[in-house]
Specification:
Layout lengths: L24 H18 L3 E8 L2 E9 L15 E2 L4 H14 L9 H4 L8 H6 L2 H5 L11 H4 L6 H8 L16 H8 L1 H6 L3 H10 L24 E4 L2 E4 L9 H4 L2 E2 L1 H12 L3 E2 L2 E2 L3 H7 L4 E4 L11 E3 L4 E5 L2 E10 L2 E8 L4 E7 L6 H14 L6 H28 L13 E5 L3 E8 L2 E6 L2 E12 L2 E6 L6 E9 L2 E7 L9 E5 L1
Antiparallel strand pairs: 1-2, 1-14, 3-6, 4-5, 7-8, 9-10, 10-11, 11-12, 12-13, 13-14, 15-16, 15-22, 16-17, 17-18, 18-19, 19-20, 20-21, 21-22
Helix pairs in contact: 1-14, 2-13, 7-8, 14-15
Length: about 500
């Protein structure tokens, strides 16, 4: 199972009760065994975990290795890409500017970005900074992300193309997670401060919080000395992957950090914004980010009662027996992570992993949280493995059925060469399909080196297998008329749920 922004899979809710100051037995006696067992079963090369309680670090430990096949072990300063856990930093930075009266979170976006445009001109005029930070512009979750994620588009080009996407829903009618919206919010910071987003975060948050190893931009992890390598799993086989080119979405997803640095962030947030007796984050700024702005759903949990799930500014929020849980997950190519806060219990949990094919980063969080809350042990990891294996078996069966169909060499509506040619999506741009060594290969204008191999399933259906496992294997239907190909509906896994319609030129 590939996970980038695991907001949909990660909505398990927890009931809280009061608990003793002493660390629970799971933390003292069982944590290491639990993690080591999971690393093997989940095929996770390396992991780092930190628990903060009452202003003190209870656990800070690295497990496993930075890269499969190597001996270099993960430690408390090893950098992992934290993906969408970047969003809380961006939202906090803007809330700090609002506290300083440099802007208002309810300012219209066009006040600061006159070139800002959305599909609907009225929404362009009305959209606020708060709308950007709480995912309520009307886009479906991840809409447009195949186009943006790890592409050669600049940040300016991402914003321009975002303005041409027709949202699936109406303005403020429902919550829909949008990375490009957070990019847009981050682009307001230079307009207000005269400093880049990355420089402002370093000066206002990283340096005063002692996050000295944290990198704002994805490009900088390549030259970092102590860094983890990302991994993924393809058809049961663990493979190294590459660092994502994510700086065109930087305010949404580009930060790399360690559990040591992230512990400073968590301790400050749980201490009314203070770190080393210095008020780094104003109380009002922290309060703004932890206040519900978007209703996501009424929810239920596997074991414990819960009532709602909302989104603040860069944070998910939910309730448990009158307790607030503040959390986010994040994913980048080869990495997934979680940050969870229980403010009323002064508890923080950080989990960083270097494969994007695990749910253990959430399972471990859940187990630690339950232990502190005095709840029964559920072995979430084994539950997760069982569910993952079931999903993998279903995927394997689906793929085998497709392979069996391909092996039968079913007739296509038109001769296979007729599907080759130049295609255009009105927002994405160009895709070319060409016969290469007897196979149809689809290549994309803004994703150099990425391609999909197309195999006939009969009629106008083809199985598209991407060259990079993160993008999966999908069925693409073509439309034909009067002996000619009109279009193809393109889709990919992992990065986006919506589709693109490429028309043959």
């Amino acid at each position: 199972m590939k996970i980038r922004n695991t907001l949909l899979a990660g909505c398990l809710l927890f009931m809280t009760t009061s608990f003793a100051q002493e660390s629970p037995s799971f933390i003292k006696d069982s944590l290491e065994t639990y993690v080591q067992h999971a690393l093997k079963n989940w095929q996770i090369p390396g992991l780092a975990v930190c628990v903060v309680k009452d202003g003190k670090v209870v656990v800070m430990k690295g497990f496993g290795v930075k890269e499969m096949g190597a001996a270099d072990k993960v430690d408390e300063n090893t950098l992992f890409m934290i993906g969408s856990n970047t969003k809380a930093f961006t939202a906090t930075a803007l809330a700090m500017l609002a506290t300083d009266k440099k802007l208002s979170l309810d300012d219209h976006v066009i006040k600061w970005l006159p070139d800002f445009k959305l599909y609907d001109p009225w929404v362009t005029k009305e959209a606020s900074i708060r709308d950007l930070l709480s995912h309520r512009l009307g886009f479906a979750t991840f809409q447009g992300d195949f186009m943006f994620w790890d592409s050669d588009l600049t940040a300016a080009e991402v914003r321009e193309k975002l303005g041409r996407i027709k949202p699936l829903y109406s303005y403020r009618s429902r919550w829909g997670y949008s990375n490009a919206s957070f990019l847009t919010a981050g682009d307001i910071i230079p307009k207000v401060t005269g400093h880049s987003w990355a420089a402002f975060l370093k000066d206002s948050l990283f340096t005063p919080l002692g996050m000295n190893n944290t990198l704002a931009l994805a490009k900088d992890i390549h030259t970092a000395a102590n860094k983890a390598t990302g991994h993924t799993v393809q058809q049961g086989v663990l493979k190294k992957t590459y660092y994502g080119r994510l700086d065109n979405l930087a305010p949404a997803t580009s930060i790399s950090s360690s559990i040591n640095d992230m512990s400073h962030w968590v301790m400050a947030l749980l201490n009314d914004g203070k770190y080393n007796n210095t008020q780094v984050i104003p109380t009002e700024a922290r309060t703004q980010t932890w206040s519900s702005n978007s209703i996501i759903s009424n929810v239920s949990a596997r074991f414990n009662k819960a009532h709602f799930l909302t989104y603040g500014l860069g944070w998910f929020l939910h309730d448990h027996n009158s307790r607030k849980i503040v959390w986010h997950t994040g994913g980048a190519n080869g990495f997934v992570s979680s940050v969870t806060l229980v403010p009323e219990e002064n508890l923080g949990i950080i989990v960083l992993t270097n494969t994007d094919s695990n749910n253990f980063y959430e399972n471990l969080r859940d187990e630690i949280l339950d232990a502190y809350l005095g709840l029964p042990y559920h072995n979430y990891s084994q539950e997760g493995i069982t569910a993952s294996e079931k999903g993998e078996q279903e995927d394997k069966q689906w793929l085998q059925e497709k392979r069996d169909t391909i092996a039968m060499k079913p007739a296509t509506t038109l001769p296979v060469p007729a599907y080759a040619g130049n295609y255009q999506d009105s927002v994405y741009g160009k895709m070319t399909i060409a016969l290469e060594n007897g196979k149809l290969i689809a290549r994309f204008e803004h994703h150099k080196g990425r391609f999909a191999t197309l195999e006939a399933l009969g009629g106008n259906r083809f199985l598209a297998t991407f060259s990079e496992p993160e993008y999966g294997i999908k069925e693409w239907p073509f439309t034909t008329s009067n002996g000619k190909v009109k279009s193809v509906t393109m889709s990919a896994d992992y990065v986006e749920y919506t589709t693109y319609e490429f028309y043959k030129k």
